[in-house]
Write a structure and sequence with these properties.
Blueprint (H helix, E strand, L loop, with lengths): L7 H11 L9 E2 L2 E2 L11 H17 L38 E2 L4 E2 L1 H7 L2 H8 L24 H9 L13 H8 L4 H11 L6 H6 L18 H7 L1 H9 L14 H16 L4 H23 L5 H7 L10 H14 L1
Antiparallel strand pairs: 1-2, 3-4
Helix pairs in contact: 3-4, 9-10, 10-14, 11-12, 13-14
Length: 335
């Protein structure tokens, strides 16, 4: 690459010697031109515009303000525009809030599955419903207050393994977990998940214990922490049937410990210390592990019906166990 001040004769000599063509620009890297005039901010405007559009679209992922939002509005269902089924009775002018059970704080699955295509129904049910109206915002995970600081940025940049950086385990999330009114063994269980300390098959093989490392639920992939609790096709359906509307396959690139803690952090911020949604999340994780062990040691058949029958609800949960299991079974039937 030549600087703008390189004489044309020198450029021609190099071209003849190397047998290459001369171009006006070397190209782009990560969306930006490699050679730029650092004093001209206009060259970065394209990146700024793209980031602004991306950040603004995130607000729709949690439906920050749904009071006047219509189902015909673009991008509100997990970033997609839902499509109505042929013969649907709903109008595109119908409000999104009409698809929710306002008292229970979750979607109306029967209405959604009947009125929208299967793909759109999944996108709607995987969209989080906030507990209060909000206009969107951002939180920096490396500080307890959620505010960006130069110290936390320096720590992130100087850490040898950035994927393992997270200050929340030592502050608010750990306090939230240890002080929560769930059984102590469940607290230890979540701690073991976050530190990848459970004896899943991949971990056993790493420690020299030769076992068949294929997943007991789907039989298609190696049983890792991420696969068992989120990425498995069988488990993904279990999450979709729950009240949280979580779809695990949309976050396969995120480490499981961060995926879990981000949800706990979100529920803590929105529901304060007594979060029934956090309890439901932990309940589902525990039930998946318990179900996996029943299949391994008791020879159970991995069926959704068996899982829902074994699903355990903590005593502090607001929703009665039989009601939650019934709702999950109903959603599964609709699928």
């Amino acid at each position: 690459m030549f600087s703008p001040n390189t004489p044309s004769t020198d450029r021609d000599q190099c071209k003849a010697h190397l047998g290459t063509q001369l171009g006006d620009a070397v190209g782009k890297y990560l969306g930006n031109f490699i050679e730029v005039n650092g004093r001209n901010l206009k060259v970065y405007q394209e990146l700024v515009t793209k980031m602004q559009q991306k950040l603004l679209s995130w607000e729709h992922l949690t439906l920050g303000n749904m009071i006047d939002l219509k189902i015909g509005s673009p991008g509100w269902a997990s970033g997609h525009s839902p499509q109505l089924r042929q013969g649907a009775t709903l109008s595109p002018k119908t409000l999104v809030t009409d698809l929710m059970d306002q008292g229970a704080g979750h979607w109306k699955p029967s209405t959604i599955w009947c009125q929208f295509t299967s793909q759109s129904a999944r996108q709607i049910l995987s969209t989080h419903i906030p507990t209060q109206s909000a206009t969107g915002g951002f939180s920096w995970n490396l500080t307890a207050t959620g505010t960006l600081s130069s110290k936390s940025v320096y720590y992130l940049l100087t850490t040898s393994n950035p994927d393992q950086v997270d200050s929340r385990p030592s502050s608010s999330i750990w306090k939230f977990l240890w002080r929560s009114a769930i059984p102590p063994k469940w607290k230890v269980f979540i701690w073991r998940i976050l530190w990848n300390a459970l004896p899943v098959k991949s971990n056993l093989n790493k420690r020299g214990i030769g076992v068949n490392n294929m997943c007991l639920l789907c039989g298609d992939s190696v049983e890792t922490n991420e696969h068992l609790f989120r990425d498995c096709s069988f488990v993904d359906k279990l999450w979709a049937c729950g009240n949280l509307g979580i779809r695990g396959h949309t976050a396969t690139s995120v480490p499981l410990w961060r995926w879990i803690m981000d949800y706990l952090f979100l529920f803590k911020q929105q529901d304060a210390s007594n979060s029934s949604r956090a309890n439901t999340l932990i309940t589902t994780l525990w039930s998946i592990w318990n179900f996996r062990n029943k299949i391994l040691f008791a020879g159970l058949h991995p069926s959704p019906k068996t899982f829902l029958q074994l699903m355990t609800i903590p005593r502090t949960e607001v929703v009665p166990a039989h009601n939650l299991a019934t709702q999950a079974r109903d959603r599964w039937k609709l699928r």
